[in-house]
Specification:
elongated; alpha/beta; Rossmann fold
Amino acid sequence: MAIYTILIILLILILISIIDIFFLYGLVSTVVFVLFLPFYFIVRVLNKKFLYGWKEKLGFFKAPLLGDKVIMYHGVSVGEVIALENVIKKTKEVFPDYKIVVTTGTKTGQEIARKKYAQIADFITYFPFDITLCVNVFLNKIKPTVVLIAETELWPIFSSSCKRRGIYLYCINGRMSDSTFSIYKKFGFFFKFVLQKYTKILTQSEIDMNKLLAIGAPKEKTSVMKNLKFDIKASDEKVEIGQEGYRVIIAGSTHKGEDEIILPIFKEKHEKYSDTKLLLVSRHTQRIPDIVELIEKTGLKYGYRSKGDTFKDNDVILLDTMGELSKMYSMCHFAFIGGSFNKTGGHNPLEATVYSKPTITGPNIHNFRDIYWLLSRSNAGKIVKNPKELSDYMEKLLSDNDFYTQACKDCETIFKDQQGALDVVINELKEIL
């Protein structure tokens, strides 16, 4: 008797799922979520991890009165949040009557969002768990007119709820790695229904667009917008540190352990190429005394930007002032981008590439993986695995003029090919708002 009862229940669920596949997904995901929630808390506490954002993700947050004109941007983590910077600023400028809400999925993403958008966004919080109750509570409080999700996060309940409520839903700057694509393709029968809920799906490249089409994205709603991260402009501000006549190498945003790598390599190059100079920029200025000790061991002459020291009298200048790094890239021969020989995940190479300067980075670049993928397809950017490869590639850029010239041209080409994404998003918003 019990078996027949179970079979009947399953049959009913299957029939309902045929009518609305999201019902079954929502039912199962809610049951699983409730069952595993206690274990989630126990594991996180035992691992001594702070339960970041769990209240907000469940819907327990107090939102300001935002009204009925709300534009919401979502970036799951650091890379996506950074990519949204220019488009969020432009949105605020073009649509001043609308409130801006920014959500993230991770703690680090939330920290960056609060740092970058505190004076721009009207509210910053976490994206809800993709559970019917959590999503409904969230949407009831935020009441977005339009939601723009950076890159490719496919949340079945959230997308279905937006469609049902008449909320415009966009995937912008969409991309999909090969590994993610192989997984999604296996469940294309399901994700096809999710993708159909979107108003528009705008991708970084034709490759990304074709991957999404292959898992069921509607052709009439899917197109290429290029990459938001490339919509930056070079500064016209002139820099003077006595660099004329020298080839300046910039080691930008270095972290502990990276100065120990770059200084011996630079000394070797400087002894071979006397016209080379190094601008060393630590990500954290409190580390400068430790870096000075490292420089003194090399015997290189050094000075400080804050004291007005120049390359005419020094081999190395320490940039110990704030907010100047991006414009300094305009004068370099090429740049090493730090945060890539540790677990930081890299820093933005486009601050150098925008000036047509080639970049080199270590292997850990997950915060900007999409950017480095584009740069490394040409000579605009190089990902090296270890200090030996770093030294070898620096040698190539210093010794081979034709190779260096081509690397600079590659930087220009990539920017020309990729810019324009910001205007695409703004124009899409103009059509619906």
